[in-house]
Design goal:
This protein has one domain (6-43, 58-307): Rossmann fold, CATH 3.40.50.12370. 43% of the residues lie in helices and 17% in strands. The protein is built from twelve helices and twelve strands. It has a ten-stranded mixed beta sheet, sandwiched between helices. Helix 1 links the parallel strand 1 (6-9) and strand 2. Helix 4 (98-105) packs parallel to helix 6.
């Protein structure tokens, strides 16, 4: 199955307006239509058992919410360039919790775009609880629109750790670079090796020695994935960077230094905490990257397309 279409979540200005603009850019770049989805609580969610008869009928409520959503979308699109206004745009409303609604709406999509809330130092407050749940639930890549946007001409920065999850992220980054006409920079951070066990010092290599030993392995991994990907589609130039620093910080720092247009990371983990649900590097990137971030699930659309024709440090 080849995934098509861009889905974007609408959750109110200003984040939704920025997300809608980015979704239309994605649609123009991919030649895909865009579907904007707004989730709203079902009628019974506002009732406490009394006064239910005073609530609007579900159909009337849906029509009213849809009218408001369309008005918002029209106002958000109006100031955009003509090429973005010409991208086919459908506005839909669905009753239910936002994260499951968006994940279901994007089940067959090429990418899902969500806004960044930016409200505090903690994960759920910074990204927004809906955004974090979407990252854990979505079966397609999720593009998180960060508040700060550098120029669009920078490279695509992707975090790799030689896992299958980061291979999926690298394949997405290669396609992203080809669509944008930009190079790809693959980043693997080298965390400092342990120096003690308890109170006993450990003999071992220096951090620089570890970095030098790891670099050819990372280059071999990147070359293998790129060579395989090139069998079915064009690929951009790829550079490999192995900084001697924490993997999350390495991806963010390289993106900052190079003025990345987008950061791509793989989604890993299945634990109860947010950073385990999406992977610690992915979690760090969506909170602190200087540009938008795409979180790619293992077995995403690139894997399906490839069959037919945490990752990140």
């Amino acid at each position: 199955m080849t995934r098509r279409g861009v889905v974007v979540g609408l959750d109110g200005p200003p984040a939704a307006a920025a997300a809608l603009a980015v979704a239309l850019e994605e649609g123009a770049r991919r030649g895909d239509p865009v579907t904007a989805v707004l989730a709203f609580p079902a009628a019974g969610a506002w009732a406490d058992g009394e006064g239910v008869e005073d609530l609007p009928e579900p159909d009337r409520m849906s029509e009213a919410v849809l009218e408001q959503a369309r008005r918002f979308a029209d106002e958000a699109v109006m100031p955009l360039p003509a090429d973005l206004r010409s991208v086919p745009l459908e506005v839909r409303v669905e009753p239910g919790s936002p994260a499951p609604v968006l994940a279901e709406a994007a089940r067959d999509a090429a990418i899902l775009v969500v806004g960044h809330r930016g409200r505090g130092p903690l994960g759920s407050a910074v990204l927004g609880s809906t955004g974090l749940r979407v990252l854990a639930l979505a079966t397609c890549p999720v593009l998180v629109v960060r508040p700060r946007e550098p120029g669009p001409d920078g490279p695509v920065v992707v975090g790799v750790d030689r896992s299958e999850g980061s291979a999926a992220a690298l394949r997405h980054a290669l396609d992203e670079g080809a669509r944008r006409g930009s190079r790809v920079v693959a980043v693997t951070g080298v965390a400092p090796p342990p120096t003690t066990v308890g109170f006993r010092p450990l003999p071992g290599q220096t951090l620089e020695a570890v970095r030098e030993a790891l670099r050819p392995r990372v280059e071999k991994f990147v070359h293998g994935v790129t060579k395989e990907h090139a069998r079915t589609r064009s690929v951009p130039h790829v550079d490999v960077v192995v900084p001697a620093e924490d993997p999350t910080k390495a991806v963010i720092d390289v993106a900052e230094q190079l003025g990345a247009s987008v950061v791509v990371v793989g989604r890993t983990g299945h634990g109860a905490l947010v950073r385990w649900l999406i992977g610690s590097v992915a979690h760090g990137a969506v909170l602190r990257a200087p540009c938008s971030v795409v979180v790619v699930p293992l077995g995403g659309p690139e894997e399906t397309d490839r069959a037919g024709g945490d990752g990140g440090g």
